[in-house]
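Lecture notes, continued. The same structure-token format from the folding unit now serves as the input rather than the output. Read the line below as a description of shape only.
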């Protein structure tokens, strides 16, 4: 038995001598281990990965993350120590990540063994923010504006979380709705007041509320007006007539407007110049009656259209064979009594009218005289109507009609003529002669233009302490008046003249004139001296009269003073030699002594 066992040992030893033996540790199956420097990371952190093998091996590392799989080919590494490297980009998304190490051991015929470990990427808490693009926008009344709602999450891992949207800050007639791709549409109406609105978008998710704002400015919607000038006109067959069409911008952003006209027969041609434009603009509508054959009246409807809506204006057109027109340069005028009114009338032909037109005047008030510079003629011609008013004409409003007649046709032009009162003026002066000084009396003299004989003028005196005294005096035929006044108090006094006027002449007042009363004599002596002075003055006057009679000085005869021009009836001043209206001599110069 012993021999048999020994033989077996020898045979087994010989067999072992022919087989290459691995190191003592290789007698156990190889192993691989993998680990990370931490078990939990924050987003963006770097990860240190370590791998250990029990024998030399070729290692491949694969990391499975929520964002995808990342593979690292580490290659051959030695056994007995940890081989580490730093990996980036593994922590971009929060969640659980698995690190798997695959080791291929050549000593074991390329057998592959694996090991794995996990780590966690801790993301931020759920949150989001909102913004609107653009942050401001304008829209016309009745239009719709669009914004894009932009959502940013605290982590991409939260993408897709449902957010509830609400919109506030809308004005009258405004509505909102959400479209696809996070689009926000805000519609307005024609009644939405034009102004800037702050639109607030509120989002809510997982108990968190966030807001974003934008400015929506509602501007007035595009609107315009259309007018036609003239509103009516007459043209002759064979002629052309023009209307001015004005398209004015009222509100909003201007857009192109096109013009058209209706109401014309086929034998009347028309053209706009231009036919389209952007308000505000003016176009000339020309009507060509060269193909017309009959007289008729037409109502033209001129339309301006843009963006689906139109505005219209109307005008009338009369097509005549031959005619004429008469117009005045004014439709209303006014003068004062005694003045002349000049009115200019234009008579123009329509078409080929070539006959004499006679002018007649009616509506002239009593006391006024009409004169036509051209009472008749062939159009075109101009005639001036001069209306001369005398002193007897009554103040009031009159309708003057100039009628033009020719070739069986009659037209007229009417002017409103208002005749106002004559203007008046008052002038006064204050004087004091030596006798007035003795009598402490002042002479107030004045003149009124034009003179209104027999009228009373109020002389208003004001003295110290606001004392007021009113005295009346009458106007003579030359418009002069006077007063003698002895103030009862010393000091400064003023006087002014005032006339209230009558039915023909306006009232007036003069400037205020200042004078001063002072006493030059003691009171006990003043009366005696005044009496003596008066007696002496009377004696001197008597002697002077006797001497004058003895010399037999011939007093020149003064003709009656004229107040009205005998030729044209205009008022003249009492000192005027010539009429200021027509140049007529109204008074002979008076001989000097």
């Amino acid at each position: 038995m012993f021999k048999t066992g020994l033989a077996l040992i020898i045979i087994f030893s010989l067999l072992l001598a022919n087989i290459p033996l691995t190191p003592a540790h290789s007698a156990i199956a190889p192993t691989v281990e993998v680990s990370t420097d931490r078990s939990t990371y924050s987003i963006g952190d770097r990860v240190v990965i370590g791998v250990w093998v029990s024998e030399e091996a070729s290692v491949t590392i694969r990391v499975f993350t929520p964002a995808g799989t990342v593979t690292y080919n580490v290659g051959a590494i030695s056994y007995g120590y940890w081989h580490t490297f730093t990996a980036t980009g593994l922590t971009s998304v929060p969640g659980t990540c698995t690190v798997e190490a695959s080791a291929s051991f050549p000593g074991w015929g390329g057998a592959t063994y694996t090991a794995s470990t996990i780590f966690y990427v801790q993301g931020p808490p759920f949150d989001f923010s909102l913004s609107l693009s653009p942050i401001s926008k304008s829209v016309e009344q009745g239009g719709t504006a669009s914004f894009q709602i932009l959502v940013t999450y605290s982590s991409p891992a939260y993408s897709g979380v449902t957010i509830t949207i609400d919109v506030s800050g809308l004005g009258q007639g405004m509505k909102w709705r959400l479209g696809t791709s996070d689009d926000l549409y805000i519609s307005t109406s024609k009644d939405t007041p034009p102004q800037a609105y702050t639109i607030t978008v509120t989002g809510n998710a997982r108990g968190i509320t966030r807001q974003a704002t934008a400015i929506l400015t509602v501007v007035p919607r595009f609107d315009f007006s259309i007018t036609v000038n003239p509103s009516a006109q007459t043209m002759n067959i064979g002629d052309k007539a023009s209307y001015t069409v004005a398209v004015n911008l009222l509100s909003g952003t201007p857009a192109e407007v096109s013009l058209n006209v209706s109401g014309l027969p086929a034998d009347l041609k028309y053209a706009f110049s231009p036919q389209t434009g952007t308000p505000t603009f003016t176009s000339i509508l020309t009507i060509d009656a060269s193909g017309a054959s009959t007289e008729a009246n037409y109502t033209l409807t001129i339309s301006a259209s843009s963006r689906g809506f139109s505005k219209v204006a109307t005008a009338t057109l009369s097509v005549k064979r031959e005619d004429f027109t008469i117009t005045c340069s004014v439709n209303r005028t006014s003068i004062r009594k005694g003045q002349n009114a000049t009115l200019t009338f234009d008579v123009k032909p329509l078409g080929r009218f070539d006959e004499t037109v006679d002018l007649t005047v009616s509506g002239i008030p009593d006391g006024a005289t009409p004169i036509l510079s051209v009472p008749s003629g062939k159009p075109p011609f101009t005639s001036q109507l001069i209306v001369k008013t005398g002193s007897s004409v009554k103040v009031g409003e009159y309708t003057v009609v100039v009628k033009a007649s020719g070739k069986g046709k009659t037209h007229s032009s009417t002017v409103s003529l208002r005749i106002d009162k004559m203007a008046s003026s008052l002038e006064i002066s204050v004087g004091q002669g030596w006798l007035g000084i003795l009598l402490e009396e002042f002479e107030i003299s004045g003149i009124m233009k034009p003179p209104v004989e027999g009228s009373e003028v109020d002389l208003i005196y004001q003295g110290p302490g606001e004392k007021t005294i009113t005295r009346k005096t009458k106007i003579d035929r030359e418009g002069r008046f006077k007063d003698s006044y002895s103030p009862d108090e010393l000091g400064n006094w003023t006087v002014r003249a005032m006339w209230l006027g009558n039915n023909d002449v306006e009232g007036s007042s003069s400037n205020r004139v200042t004078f001063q009363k002072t006493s030059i004599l003691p009171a006990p002596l003043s009366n005696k001296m005044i009496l003596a002075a008066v007696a002496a003055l009377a004696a001197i006057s008597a002697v002077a009269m006797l001497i004058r009679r003895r010399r037999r000085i011939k007093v020149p005869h003064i003709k009656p003073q004229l107040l009205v021009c005998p030729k044209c009836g205009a008022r003249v001043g009492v000192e005027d030699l010539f009429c200021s209206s027509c140049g007529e001599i109204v008074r002979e110069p008076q001989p000097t002594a």
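Point for the exam: The CA atoms of residues 456 and 490 lie 28 Å apart.
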